[in-house]
Amino acid sequence: MEQPFDRRDGFIWYDGKLVPWAGATLHVLSHGLHYASCVFEGERAYGGVIFRSTAHSERLKKSAELLDFEIPYSVAEIDAAKHQVLERNAQKDAYVRPVAWRGSEMMGVSAQHNKIHLAIATWEWPSYFDPAQRLKGLRLDLAQYRRPDPATIPAKAKAAGLYMICTISKHQAERKGYADAMMLDWRGLVAECTGANILFIQDGRIHTPTPDCFLDGITRQTVIELARRRGIEVIERKISPDELSKFSECFITGTAAEVTPVAEIADWRFKPGSITKQLMEDYTAEVQPRAAAA
What's the whole-model pTM score? Predict the structure, then answer.
């Protein structure tokens, strides 16, 4: 059994200083736990370099603003802190998790004067999916819950509360033997997976849902840029589930998933092909640290 996350060795950056892993705790009456006033990021370091670190730090700050609080550190300070904890833990290839939340000064819906905390942890984490399964393409269920109307939630925040239905949907999918689940939005249109964006291929073009009620992932943005560099047309639009039978390839993108092919979604079938494989290779090359110029 994998070692629980509260019993690991190493150091975590916590409110401005490195503390032993076991000492990075919070009180059970923290507002972030009870009222989901908590935002986070998921990042990867390759060869000791965090991929698109600043973009992630900027999004963390923006997510907090959308939840009506301000992280008391600049983007540059957050970038430096991530590097510090990665270096202190002597990790080159690792997952990086910054998380910010409201503290315990006030327990109630209103907590405008609660202290804002920031912690950053890093740990070694291999591919999110089984390597053999990943190359064959994932099997996805169709999620019960849908991404809500952005008029009802801060949809552009990477906020803890927005992942509640993702956890439920992924658990349900795994119990049925699937690796993950694809979620529709409140209109019944294709949205995303529980922790990754989704893209489809038809006649050499990439089609992907417009991220109007879910995160426009940083990995998604990177892969779209890589596709366009190769002259592959990328079309962002509303996609109905009725269209899925027309697509030949499908893949998902995310910090954890990276670029991973999909073989089936419920009753729809896909075959990982040349475009998906090319983008997998391009993404791997993109995230590797560049050699210093001679």
Answer: 0.94
